[in-house]
Amino acid sequence: MFKCGFVAVIGKPNAGKSSLVNALVGEKVSIVSPKPQTTRNNILGIYNEDDCQIIFVDTPGINKAGTGLDNFMQKSIKGAVSDVNAVIIVTDITKEFSTSEKQLIDNYFEKKIPVIVVLNKIDLVSEEKVFRTLSTYMPVMDKCEVVPVSSLKHKNLNALIDVVKKYLVEMEDKFYDDESYTDKPLKFLVAEIIREKALYFLSEEIPHGIAVVVQNYEETDTIVNIDADIICEKASHKPIILGHQGEMLKKIGHNARVTIQKIVQKKVMLKIFVKLKSNWKNNLEFLNSMGYNELEI
Ligand SMILES: Nc1nc2c(ncn2[C@@H]2O[C@H](COP(=O)(O)OP(=O)(O)OP(=O)(O)O)[C@@H](O)[C@H]2O)c(=O)[nH]1
Ligand SMILES: [Mg+2]
């Protein structure tokens, strides 16, 4: 018998949900950036021990609906929390415990879904601040468990895993084989890594207006050839993504290539093209082709 379970990881944009899932799983399954609304899909990160398997569901940050893409992102969160064994609410310890977070706790408590509040980014504050913040959770302590961690510095993650283990259920088989650590194909991760570097180097609204499509992924024994498109939503964004004499695109491409090489452990040849697709965030056909279409677990 094995102890297994699904755990949704939700919270405000930028709280560190993807950083936490990557740190728990020990692999890069989800991209991370200093800008809010980095994650767009639900992404599974699978944690394995000999006799236990925890499937963490990374989700987009909780936000308002708006464009077709925004609606998809917000629906994804709802999809993620249905049928899970527990919910982790990730909060940034440098921010106040908000009424919306309290409402979330009350809501899951009423639905009898176990809630674990993760106070993330403890590396940024004093120990005293951690204790002070813990005390602000006193009024809801009967409805949830609270675990302070640092996803960045991998602090207190074992304690979090121990808490999660209380909510796993006995299964005859694991859901995924022991070698799997995500549900997404490599092509998806490659597109996401390019988007991660674009989020990192581009400013203002431009990185949020892009989508990345891997058009070609060919692997030989020694080399991986990748052709990808960065799709932008406004004509004025194209020259900014390219940069002066193509410098910006080169920087994005170079950094993406280095990260992809580390993952595939082979030399990578990466060609990126910038294309315009006006208002793609409301183009259902395009959203479908990107997989931003259905409710994912
Ligand atoms: N100092 C510190 N920074 C962290 C920690 N965890 C995450 N961060 C930073 O917080 C920022 C946001 O991290 P993400 O993991 O992308 O946050 P997210 O909640 O997945 O964000 P969205 O996908 O946009 O909702 C990044 O700059 C991370 O490096 C932490 O434990 N300590
Ligand atoms: Mg994220």
Description:
It is a single chain. The model has no long low-confidence stretch (mean pLDDT 95). This protein folds into two domains: 2-171, Rossmann fold (3-Layer(aba) Sandwich); 186-289, K homology (KH) domain (GMP Synthetase, Chain A, domain 3). It has nine helices and ten strands. The chain is globular. Strands 1, 2, 3, 4, 5, 6 and 7 form a seven-stranded mixed beta sheet that branches. Strands 8-9-10 form a three-stranded mixed beta sheet. Helix content is 34%, strand content 25%. The protein is of the alpha/beta class and 297 residues long. The two termini are 24 Å apart. The longest helix is centred in the C-terminal third of the chain and has 18 residues, at 247-264. Guanosine-5'-triphosphate binds at residues 11, 13-19, 32-34, 36-39, 60-61, 120-121, 123-124, 150-152.
